[in-house]
Amino acid sequence: MRHFLVDVKSIRCDRSRSEFDRGTVERLADAILISGGLVKPLVLRPAGAMSYEVVDRHLEYWAAVRAREKDARAGEMVNSYVISQESVEAVEGQLAILRGTEAQGKHMSSPVRQPDTSAIDELAVRLSSIERALARTVTAEQLEGALQSLLSSVEAAIASAKTAPNVKTVPKRAAKKREFNPEGPCDQENLNAATVSDLKGFMKRKGISTSGLKKKQDYIDSIIAFYQAR
Predict the structure, then answer these.
(1) How many other CB atoms are there within 10 angstroms of residue 174's CB atom?
(2) What are phi and psi of 79, to 5 degrees?
(3) Does residue 88 register a pLDDT over 80?
(4) Average pLDDT of 122-146?
(5) Average confidence (pLDDT) over 149-176
(6) Considering just the CA atoms, what is the radius of gyration of the chain in Å?
(7) What are the φ and ψ backbone dihedral angles of 2, each rounded to 5 degrees?
(8) What domains can be seen in the chain, in order of their start residue?
């Protein structure tokens, strides 16, 4: 019995693929591609020119077939033990003894079948990986959305600045303070522009009495009354 890398296409199996759990075949195929081979190689015997038949490891064979379907290059060859025609009976006898020993050991050590947690553990690892990937995706989308919103706001502000009318603010000129005109008119507005000294001087020139007057408005009222009486 010798160890070879055998082309998966050259191997045939007398057991149907449907006999084996699909999920198990799928996981084992992934493991073959990742590790580069089988931990327990196929046991084959020659079945013609460059063709072989599975003697043992039928599940592993279908996993190797699935690995080749997933990646034709990486899964093209599978590690196998090839037995010669003259030693077929001896090898099959050895396999029968091993199978019987394994079955007896399982029966003695595990009267109640224990659940296989390896698949659950593997599923948990995969879910964790998917969750991390989703978290990164959501964060990226949120960041992209925020950046897009910011860009839209900037573009709207620029567009608004371009279309807004160019209005110049003209400072209001301070109203020019009116100056008192001694030549008239002798009304409230003109007289109000005069100081008390101006009013006193004006009244003195016009002969208007200032007796008893104290406030500016008193002087103005006296001047207006003087001209209204004329």
Answers:
(1) 6
(2) -75, 135
(3) no
(4) 58
(5) 69
(6) 55
(7) -130, 155
(8) 2-114 (3.90.1530.10), 188-228 (no CATH)
